[in-house]
Amino acid sequence: MQHKIAIQGIQGSYHHEVATQLFGSDIALAECLSFDDLVDQVVTAAVDAAVMALENSIAGSIIPNYALIDRHDLHIVNEAYIRIEHQLMALPGAQLADLKEVASHPMALLQCKDFFATQPHIKLIEDADTAEVAQRISEQKMAGLGAIASKTAAKLYGLDIVAPNIHSIANNATRFVVIQKDPPAENRQNNKASLKFMLDHKRGSLATVLNVLSDCKLNLTKIQSMPVVDTPWKYSFFVDITFEEYAHYEKALQVMAIMTESFKVLGTYTNQRN
């Protein structure tokens, strides 16, 4: 059965690469130019699942995506980490000196800022998607415009790479998650979970929760705070934990549900980071 998967961006994007890595090449893509559109595809059951970037090793967390998952009661069922290798591409035959402008997703521009600091003749333009810019250059024969995208995008849209691997830091990786509308069946072989809870702005409240995680033999791998907009001095926390024994995880859930407010399991899945 062919899976229908929503991605942020189009064919040749990094989301597309993750989707094929996890679901194979025989998938039906729902191409979305915003994460709001992507989530709508999941909420309306127009797709089986969606691939969503959640954090980058250079730029940090994509905080609004945590809120989208929480607000729409979606479920994280898997994750993937890929190295991001940005290529500067343009029409065949173009040289770096020929480029007047480069357009790409704001995250890609941020991750390549050191390279462009050495190219003052190039104007940087924020756009919706890395691969979509490459496609536009190819289809509209846009001379003087470059795109920052993957090698896959360059090959797919017939562009030349005028400057390879222009990202500022070599070990540039992004974490993606797979989200779906319905909760998956319990799998006691899973060893990672994403949780959300709320705490009052009181001294020691977060430390107490973290002590519970430690006492239950859970390893905290990620913590992200977010103000509760309509309630001053309250904060939501999004945390990732790993564990060796599922029973330890179950014990922690019972205690945390009592100690915190708005406690929610966003997903339990298999840790893909070694």
Percentage of helical residues? 25-40%
Biggest sheet layout: 6 strands, mixed
Q: N-to-C SSE series?
A: EHEHEEHEEEHHEHEHEEEHEEHE
The name of the CATH superfamily of the largest domain reads Periplasmic binding protein-like II
Here the CATH topology of the largest domain equals D-Maltodextrin-Binding Protein, domain 2
Mean pLDDT: 94
CA-based gyration radius:
21 Å
Count of the domains? 3
Strand residue percentage: 35-45%
The number of helices is: 9
The CA-CA distance between the termini, in Å, is 31 Å
Instruction: Report the principal-axis shape.
Output: elongated
CATH architecture of the largest domain: 3-Layer(aba) Sandwich
- Coarse structural class: alpha/beta
Text of the CATH class of the largest domain: Alpha Beta
How would you explain this protein's 3D organization?
There is one protein chain. This protein is α/β, with parallel strands linked by helices and 274 residues long. The chain has 3 domains: 3-82 and 172-180, Periplasmic binding protein-like II (D-Maltodextrin-Binding Protein, domain 2), CATH 3.40.190; 87-163, Periplasmic binding protein-like II (D-Maltodextrin-Binding Protein, domain 2, 3-Layer(aba) Sandwich); 192-269, ACT domain (Alpha-Beta Plaits). The protein has helices spanning 14-23, 35-43, 63-71, 106-111, 113-117, 130-140, 151-156, 205-215, 246-259, and strands spanning 3-8, 27-32, 49-56, 60-61, 75-83, 87-90, 101-104, 123-126, 145-149, 160-163, 173-180, 192-200, 219-227, 234-242, 261-269. The strands form 3 sheets. Strands 1, 2, 3, 4, 5 and 11 form a 6-stranded mixed beta sheet that branches. It has a 5-stranded mixed beta sheet with strand order 8-7-9-6-10. A hairpin with a 6-residue loop joins strand 13 and strand 14 (234-242). The longest helix is centred in the last third of the chain and has 14 residues, at 246-259.
